[in-house]
């Protein structure tokens, strides 16, 4: 790769959202802005090759893309008639909201993650528009055919224009409500990369990195929002364990089996720092509390050093802000380390009766693990088999079937 | 500015058919209209509809059937047309709209002119 190509690849990764977001303001239309931003990157390859890489590549690309958009609007009468498709707040409203940050990237993020769009559409649009990932790559990452993904993105863009979803940053009074789908989208992106059942390893790494970049950008743009910082902490602490999650034979490793010396120390340190800061900002929400739980695990040099009573307390807090059966299941696991497997098994059985997790493989897997600890190996084998049936991940299924066999053989 | 329809859906079975319930409902809608005006938004149309039980559906131009078009528990009970800046404002207005037996749906009106 030449130095120009390298500079351009870097500018795509770090400046794409900035260039596109600023161009949307001029173009008033997502598709037109996207085309002009792409053309600016093509023009850069040529111009930078002869005149050298400018001192501020982002500013160069933004100016070029915006000029292209203005040219196109001036030349094309039909575009003029159509515009403006994107609704921007009028200038006087802008001054009414002094607390919002004047960065166009936030407008783009909040538009892509508007609650009037489906969660799948939010994720796809964020990858396509905010991260500049090609539709074909997004399709591969989420294991859907490319035309399906293209249609999903087109439909979402159409709704933004037709229903007039505004291109703006929510005011301080709505920020809390509107930030949640944004953080959820970034978390979904990360999870797709971190635990996706199949798919190309490299692409999954890329999704993890994209999610981390987005979380960092959100913290930089909204430094007072504790939950954005909590999400960044959570992603860092989870990503730090990435290389130790799978054994050499491909088997998934539990937290207590992982080689802690191989956890990424830089990611752990930054994750702990962000989490601590999010906790002191106050009003800890679900991402901050999950980060705090990951932080307690990370702080234990050995699995046996884990401060389980503290983890149970954090899960109590998490359940109070987020009544999710998955959280309750994880709390039950923590309880088993404090009060023993019999108490935890009762909690798991309550969750089974509740029925909301009837297709969730980790419920029978947890039940199986607890039964085995209690020496009820035959029942454990059945639960492991049920869990194997429910999981969509080949490696996990293999692991669970193996556990079922060894339980049946009476191994505790 | 754009026109949005706020469609009010609800389970008719849950609605009490008494003069008192009707008066309470009318009061709630009166309060809604007042709140909308205070928000600087204009209501350009709307009405309550009689029950889906007295609806007649027509399909393909010739098949006429008794009852509403779609058999669902929640039926369209009334609607408003409002003039809003964008979807966020329309959602904010729709959240104020009384819909005790169901919910509301916000749809942009298709300009036909």
What does this structure look like?
The complex is a heterodimer of chains A (412) and B (113). Helix content of chain A is 72%, strand content 0%. With 412 residues, chain A is an all-alpha fold. Among the domains of chain A are: 1-86, Rna Polymerase Sigma Factor, Chain: A (Orthogonal Bundle); 324-408, Alpha Horseshoe (Serine Threonine Protein Phosphatase 5, Tetratricopeptide repeat). In chain A, α11 packs antiparallel against α12, α15 (308-321) runs antiparallel to α16 (325-339) and α18 packs antiparallel against α19. The longest helix of chain A is centred in the N-terminal third of the chain and has 25 residues, at 3-27. Chain A is elongated. Chain B has 113 residues and is α+β, with helices and mostly antiparallel strands. Chain B has a single domain, classed as Alpha-Beta Plaits, CATH 3.30.70. Chain B has helices at residues 19-38, 87-96, and strands at 2-11, 42-48, 56-59, 63-66, 74-84, 102-108. Chain B has a 4-stranded antiparallel β-sheet with strand order 2-5-1-6, covered by helices on one side. In chain B, strands 3-4 form a two-stranded antiparallel ribbon. Chain B is flat and about 45 Å long. The two termini of chain B are 15 Å apart. The model of chain B has no long low-confidence stretch (mean pLDDT 90).
How many strand units of chain A?
0
Strand content of chain A: under 5%
Question: Helix/strand-derived class of chain B?
Answer: alpha+beta
Mean of residue pLDDT values of chain B: 90
| Rg on CA atoms of chain A, Å | 24 Å
Order of helices and strands of chain A: HHHHHHHHHHHHHHHHHHHH
Total helical segments of chain A: 20
End-to-end distance of chain B: 15 Å
Sheet with the most strands of chain A? none
DSSP strand count of chain B: 6
CATH class of the domain at 1-86 in chain A: Mainly Alpha
Largest sheet of chain B: 4 strands, antiparallel
Strand order of the biggest β-sheet of chain B: 2-5-1-6
Shape of chain A: elongated
The helix content of chain A, as a percent range, equals: over 70%
Gap between N and C termini of chain A: 55 Å
> What is Rg of chain B?
15 Å
């Amino acid at each position: 790769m030449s130095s120009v190509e390298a500079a351009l690849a870097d500018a795509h990764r770090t400046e794409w959202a900035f260039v596109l977001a600023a161009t949307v303001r001029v173009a008033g239309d997502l598709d037109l802005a996207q085309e002009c931003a792409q053309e600016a990157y093509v023009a850069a390859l040529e111009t930078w090759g002869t005149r050298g890489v400018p001192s501020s590549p982002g500013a160069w690309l933004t100016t070029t893309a915006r000029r292209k958009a203005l040219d196109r609007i001036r030349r094309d009468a039909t575009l003029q008639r159509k515009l403006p498709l994107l609704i921007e707040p009028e200038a006087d409203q802008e001054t009414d909201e002094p607390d919002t940050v004047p960065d166009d990237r936030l407008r783009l993020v909040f538009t892509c993650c508007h609650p009037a769009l489906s969660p799948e559409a939010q994720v796809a649009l964020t990858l396509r528009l905010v991260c500049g990932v090609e539709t074909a790559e997004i399709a591969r990452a989420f294991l859907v055919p490319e035309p399906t993904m293209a249609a999903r993105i087109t439909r979402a863009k159409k709704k933004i224009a037709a229903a007039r979803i505004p291109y703006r940053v929510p005011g301080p009074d709505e920020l809390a409500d509107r930030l949640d789908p944004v953080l959820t989208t970034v978390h979904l992106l990360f999870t797709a990369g971190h635990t996706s059942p199949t798919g190309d390893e490299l692409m999954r790494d890329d999704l993890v990195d994209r999610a981390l970049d987005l979380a960092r950008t959100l913290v930089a743009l909204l430094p007072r929002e504790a939950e954005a910082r909590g999400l960044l902490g959570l992603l860092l602490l989870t990503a730090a364990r990435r290389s130790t999650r799978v054994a050499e034979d491909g088997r998934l490793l539990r937290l207590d089996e992982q080689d802690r010396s191989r956890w990424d120390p830089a990611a752990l340190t930054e994750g702990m720092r962000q989490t601590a800061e999010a906790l002191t900002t106050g009003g800890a929400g679900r991402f901050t509390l999950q980060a705090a739980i990951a932080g307690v695990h990370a702080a234990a040099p050995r699995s046996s050093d884990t401060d389980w009573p503290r983890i149970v307390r954090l899960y109590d807090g998490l359940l109070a802000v987020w009544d999710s059966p998955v959280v309750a299941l994880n709390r039950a696991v923590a309880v088993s380390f404090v009060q023993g497997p019999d108490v935890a098994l009762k909690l798991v059985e309550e969750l089974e009766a509740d029925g909301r997790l009837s297709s969730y493989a980790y419920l029978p897997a947890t039940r199986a693990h607890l039964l085995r600890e209690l020496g009820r190996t035959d029942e454990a084998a059945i639960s492991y088999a049920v869990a194997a049936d429910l999981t969509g991940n080949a490696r996990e299924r293999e692991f669970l079937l193996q556990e079922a066999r060894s339980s049946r053989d009476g191994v505790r | 500015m754009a026109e949005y329809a706020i469609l009010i859906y609800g389970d008719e079975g849950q609605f009490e058919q008494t003069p008192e319930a009707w008066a309470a409902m009318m009061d709630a809608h009166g309060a809604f209209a007042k709140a909308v005006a205070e928000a600087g938004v204009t209501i350009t149309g709307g009405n309550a509809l009689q029950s889906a039980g007295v609806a007649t559906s027509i399909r393909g131009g010739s098949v006429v059937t008794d009852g509403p078009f779609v058999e669902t528990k929640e039926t369209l009970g009334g609607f408003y047309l409002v003039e809003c800046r964008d979807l966020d404002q329309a959602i904010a207005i729709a959240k104020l709209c009384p819909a005790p037996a169901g919910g509301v749906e916000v749809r942009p009106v298709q300009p036909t002119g």
